[in-house]
Amino acid sequence: ATPMSVMVASGKGATFGVLFRDAEAIETMRKVDTLVTDKTGTLTEGRPRLQDVVALNGYDEADVLRLAASLERGSEHPLAAAITQGATERGAHPLAVADFEAIPGKGVAGRIDGQRVTLGNDALMSSLGIDIAASSAQAEELRAQGKTTMFVAVDGKLSGLVAVADPVKQTTPQAIAALHEAGLRIVMLTGDNETTANAVGAELGIDEVVAGVLPGQKAQTVRRLQAQGRFVAMAGDGINDSPALAQAQVGIAMGTGTDIAMESAGVTLIRGDLRGIVQARHLSRAAMRNMH
Ligand code: ADP
Ligand code: MG
C-alpha cells in the first residue's frame, strides 16, 4: 500500500473504532479467510452474572454461595466478579480465606474455617479426586442453557454448584452474519466446558467450537488451522490470548481487554465491537486497490 492509502485506511479505521498498528496490519487483513475467536470478553461482554446456586449433600444455598464468594475475593477472573457481586446482592457475608490459590483455567482453592474449599470446573474436581457424578445431570442442564457451571467442594466432598451466564455482546450476531457473508469460517475457542460452549456456539451460528482449551493452548489451535492452509485472524481480549494473537497472521485485540492482548495484536477494536473486523477488511481491500 502507498503511504497515502495507509493514512486513509488508518483515518477511516479510527472513525469506526478500528486501530491498525502498522501498514502490514492493513495489508494483511484482506487475506483473512478464518476468524478464530475467544468467547469470554470477545464474543460475550465478559461480565458474567450469577444465575443459579444449587446446594448438595446437606449444605444450603447460602453456605454454598458464601464459600464460593469468599474464595473468589482473591481472584481477578471475570467469573470471580460475577460470584462476589451476586453474593453481595443476595446478602451473603464472606469468610476469611487462608492459603488462597488460583489454578489458571480451572478454578480457585483455599482454607476456610479449617476446611479445604475448592471451586472450579470438572477438570479441577477430577484432578483432586472429587466425585461429581451425583450432580452431573443438574450441571449438564445448566450448561445446556449456555451457563458456565462450577463445582464447590469442601474437604474433598461436593457441596454445591454455582452457574453464571455471560451475555453475548449486542453487536456480535451482526458481526458474525457479516463475516459469514464475506465467506469467513468462524472458530470459537474457550476454556469453558463443551456443553456450555456448544450452546453459545449454536446460538451464534459458529462454524466450529473448540472447548476446554487450557490457557496456553489457544495458539496451538491457530497453528493447526494455519497448517491446513487457512489464513487466520485471531480475536481475543485476555492475557491468555496473547500467544494466539501473535501466532495468527492478524491479531485482533479488544480495546476493552488487557494491555498485553493489545500489545500482541496488529488491530485493536477500541470498543470491542466485532463489526470492526468487517470494516477492517473493507479498509484493507480499499487500501490495496489504491495501489494500482
Ligand atoms: P475462558 O477461556 O472462557 O476465558 P478460563 O480458561 O479462564 O476461561 O477458565 C476455564 C474454566 O475454568 C472456567 O470456565 C471455569 O469453569 C474455571 N475457572 C477458571 N477460573 C476460575 C475462577 N476464578 N473461579 C471459578 N472457576 C474458574
Ligand atoms: Mg476472554
From TrEMBL:
Keyword annotations: ATP-binding, Cell membrane, Copper, Copper transport, Ion transport, Membrane, Metal-binding, Nucleotide-binding, Translocase, Transmembrane, Transmembrane helix, Transport
Protein location: Cell membrane
What is an example of a GO molecular function annotated in this UniProt entry?
A: copper ion binding
Q: What is its main location?
A: membrane
BP terms from Gene Ontology: copper ion homeostasis
Q: Which residues form a coiled coil?
A: none
Entry GO CC? plasma membrane
Answer yes or no on keyword Cell membrane.
yes
The record's similarity note reads: Belongs to the cation transport ATPase (P-type) (TC 3.A.3) family. Type IB subfamily.
Protein's name according to its UniProt entry: Copper-translocating P-type ATPase
What organism does this protein naturally occur in?
Answer: Amycolatopsis alkalitolerans
Q: Which residues of the full protein are shown?
A: 340 to 631 of 687
